[in-house]
Amino acid sequence: MPDEGRRRAATAGRVARGALTVALAGVALTPFLWMVSTSLMDELEVFRYPPAILPARPRWRNYPEALTALPFARFYANTLVLAAFSVAGQVITGATAGYAFARYRFAGRGALFALYLAALMVPTIVLLIPRFLLVVALGLVDTLAGLVSTELVAVWGVFLMRQFFLTLPREAEDAARLDGAGEWTVFWRVALPGARPAIATLALFAFIDAWKNFLWPLIVTRSLEHRVLEVGIASYHGLFFANWPYQMAAAVTALVPVLVVFTLAQRHFTRGIQLTGLR
């Protein structure tokens, strides 16, 4: 009887945990489902009372109409450029600086790393004016170069890569040095392949941050030619004030690349978070 009672309690616990998981997933998915539903509604159907949950007749043409009302092909291209340079720059700088902090002894290493950690506590909004003044001084306002130039280094990426390199054993690197390998060969052929989970994590975060970046592109760009996706979607509110279906249709298309990238990198992302000491 006691064993039977424990089995029943364990079963009830699993059912309760499953129900709680489903409920939390439903809460998390509700805004996205509402966004998809709204994107298929008529322009005035959104304001109906009581509010409509599903469109009376799905308007699939909202998607091509929304994406051609503004130069969204250009917005997507600019966002891809920003994301590509952000990922490449942050992975390169994060991996090299993180490896240096983790493996090399040099004067002022502790103080310099403390400055890096202190920079993590500075709100991003505080840095907008200095960044903008720097871009103005370089004559890069309303250019793709000005847009991507401040996104090539991420302090948290250096920290993440350092933490991961500290978890890797040194024996393979020491063996490579004994075989005559130089420091660059040790880093490129031994340390870096072992850091793939952390690199995937850093690349994923860099891609998502660049893809959803709004405030900095809004400040540093002026013309539609150099706008990115998030700023383009926000432009609907001024050009098509009451057309929420257009805005939601554009937002759904903007969400798809993030979902695809996250799905492909999910395994490396989870392992990278587990092994970098950020848990």
Task: Provide structural commentary.
The chain is mainly alpha-helical and 279 residues long. It folds into two domains: 2-39; 62-275, MetI-like (MetI-like fold), CATH 1.10.3720.10. 73% of the residues lie in helices and 0% in strands. It is built from 13 helices and no strands. It is flat and about 75 Å long. The protein starts with a helix and ends with a helix. The model has no long low-confidence stretch (mean pLDDT 86).
Question: Roughly what percent helix?
Answer: over 70%
| First and last CA, distance | 40 Å
Q: Report the CATH C-level class of the largest domain.
A: Mainly Alpha
What is the strand tally?
Answer: 0
Encode the helix/strand succession as letters.
HHHHHHHHHHHHH
Give the overall average pLDDT.
86
Number of helices: 13
What is the number of independent domains?
2
